[in-house]
Amino acid sequence: MKPASSFLVHDRTLPAIAAAIFLLLLAGGAAIVQNEAAYYQQAEREARVKAEILAASISAALDFDDVIAAQEAVNAVRVDRQVRAVGVYGLSGTLFAGYQRGANMLPPEINESWEPGSAEAELIVAQVPVENMGERLGFVHLAADPEPLSNRIGRILLIGLLMIMALLVIVVLGVGQAALRSANRELKARADALTSANSELQVQVEERHKAEEHLRQAQKMQALGQLTGGIAHDFNNLLTVIQGSAEILRRPKLEEAKRFRYADAVAQASDRAAALTSQLLAFGRRQALQPEVIDINDLVTGMSDLLDRTLGDRIEVRTELHCDHCLVEADRAQLESAVLNLAVNARDAMPEGGRLTVITAPVEENGTLMVALTVRDAGTGMDAETLGRVLEPFFTTKAPGQGTGLGLSQVYGFATQSGGDLRIESTPGEGSAVTILLPKSVGEISQQKPCNEAQSSRRSGTILLVEDNDEVAAFAEDLLRELGYSVARASNGNEAIAQVEQCDFDLIFSDVMMPGMSGIALAEELGRLRPGLPILLTTGFSSEIAAAEGKRHRVLQKPYRSATLTAAIDEALG
Amino acid sequence: MCMRNRVFAVLLFAALSLGPLLAPLHAQVPQEEVEAAYLSKFARYVAWPSTRLPGGAEIQLCLVGQDPFNRKLDEIAAGETIGGRSISVRQVSSGRGAAGCHISFVQGSNAEETRSLLNGLDGLSMLTVTSARSGSVGGMIHFVVRDQRVRFYVDDAEASRRGLSISSRLLALALAVRRQGSR
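Predict the joint structure of the above. Result:
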């Protein structure tokens, strides 16, 4: 609380209080003056009444010159201590009887035109005629002291006391009012401050929202850049293999064994590329795993060529297979992709080259038998902070364009989805070891069917190929003819409908994404036109696959190989 | 006793202090003149029945028997009005001519004669005045000289009996008053 003086000074109440005090003083003064005047009037009236009573009682004494009787009447008046002097004068103006306290209080002679002199200045003087039966007999002169000063001062003091009390009340009220107002002002100021602080806060929150929005946008762009860069990087790796192999294949007089090996390399690299795009598709739309029982040692052994080629000469790949007859149930393509992913990471951690070891081992985890597949490198390793973030999607330590940041998070997703786990150990400067843990399976090992060889018998029938891309169309046409089908080609939906109306086909094999009518629309249309006519759709777009599958159409995912195409056609033809 | 002493002391003080101011009014004035002055003034302090003194009627002041004032009364009465009434003075020898008088100053040559004159006025509604000079026979107002001053006694009982009312102010100046009921 502020001291009382400070809010008195800064307040409108002050002049109000001053005015009230001034008015009160004025009223008090007026009351005193009025009181005094009233008192004097009253005193004069009293003096006059006393004189009149005396005049009435001494008329006979004056008439009959009875001084003693007159004096007795006068003496009766003097009992009143305030009466200073009483004189009874005859008609001639001479003093007849009288009384005075103090010297020279009575004028020696008096007449009608008598005026009070200096002796009477402080006194209350009444002069009345003595009459009887209308006859004037003389005068009575009476001079009285005003009420003793002490009495009057007492009265004035009483008024003063009342005024002081009223003043105190006013001051107290004023001070109270001022205090209240000051408190109100302070409250209002605080409320204002609070309001402004609040609005400031809101502005800050908005700015922060904007900044966060910008940051999100920037992160999105960065992620997109990393993703595309990473995809390009991975694809470049695979293309390097394919281009190199193709170049060697073109050499004349190439040994048969070498020719097979490089053709095989092209096929494998293409498989990896397909796996990569399927991985990307899976990222956009969770793809169902197609688990099969796999011997983990066989898988690692089967991948060694691929690893050698992918990782280059500076990386020495070693395998330590400590898990004989270890079977796991997993999606083969995803598992291979995961191992390749880890291997590429290991290579990148060893820019100067080094040894990469792939280890398989049985482990027991919480009473469950698991199979561990570890990829260990002797690279730079990771610090604790990096280790804590490696599983985040899009997190990468590689330069832009060198990685998607999806690898490890994909691997982790695959491992957990398969009922296993992912373990990462790393020491900066010594290298890292990433272990995929998978539950050990007790099932029968699945036979990888050599599809094209097993079903190489020639087929017959007419297939309408609907495809807007001529290269893809030429490849598909060759493939279908090789299988024994006769093929008609349409480059869009309308063309296809026109042909269907003219000829009979055993199967319609159509792309989904085409200018004009889409493959799905075509399938709908043909379903009405030729109910029961088998239709096989093909596309590489994840959203289209979902849409087509949602409408119960058969869909072959691009890219396809002759084996998968044959299987899909067989299934469609029933 | 003590109270009276104090009153006396105050009176003495007042008298001493006023002494030089008070003129010695009666010192050289003869008793007859004072009585004459008083006679006309009595009318102011006496009320007659309205039948005796109708409005506007003059007051008749009668000298029954002798005239001790030597025509002085005529002069004084001539200059006197009582409540708008003038005063007429006449001399009557006996009660027979005094029937209309309002105030009668009765004086015989001796006390015996004064008494018979007074008796002649008996039953008349008038103020009778006598003086000690003509004996101790008293009318309603009886002049005496005390301390060299002319004073008077009042017989209020007799006045009431005759239908007169005498003002208490006058009674207050009397040496003594015989009141109604007292014997």
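The interface with chain B takes residues 56-57, 59-61, 63-67, 69, 71, 74-75, 78, 94-100, 106, 108, 132-135 of chain A (CB under 8 Å).
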